[in-house]
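Technical note accompanying the year-one report. For the benefit of new consortium partners, we illustrate the data format agreed upon in the data management plan: each record pairs a sequence with a C-alpha cell string. No post-processing was applied to the example shown here.
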Amino acid sequence: MFDRFGNMDTCEEINELAANLLKEGDKDSIKALAEENGIDEEVAEMFINGELEVLCDPDTAAWGKLEVESKELKVVEIMKDWVDYLKAVCEEDPEMAKAVRNSKKSLKGMIAALLQWSFKNSYDVDKEIMKAAGVSASRCSLGIPGMGTAKKLIRQYYKEGV
C-alpha cells in the first residue's frame, strides 16, 4: 500500500506528480499512481488523453485512499458501514476529504479508535438474550457503538490534530 509513490497528503501532491509524469510521457507510471491511490484506470486514461485537467480532486483522492485501505484491511460488515459513512461525509465536507487524505491518518487508526471506545464502553448482555441466541457462555459483553456515536468518533479521529 503506497509503496511506489508514498502516502501523499493532498490531491494537489498527486496531481503535481501526475502532471510531471505526463510531461515526461510516462503513461505507465500515471496508471500505477492512479492504482496505488485507488483512482479508476478509466480516470487515469482520461487524464492521459487530456480529457481531464487533473487526475483527482479532494473527494476522489479521499475515496481512493479509503478504497485502498479497505482492501488492505479486508473491511466487512459494520466496518464497511463506517467507511461508507465516511465516504458520504467526504462528499459533503471538503475539509473531511482533506483530513482523510492526510498521511498521518488512516482507516486502521479510525477503526482502532472505534474499537478502543468499544472496549471501554462494553456492557453485559442479559442472560435471557444469551439464552435466546444459544450462547452458553457464563458471560457475554457487547460494545459496538451506535451509529450516532460512531459518526462522532469518526469525525473526531480525522479532524483532531490535522
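Partners are asked to follow this layout when depositing records. The CA atoms of residues 58 and 94 lie 7 Å apart.
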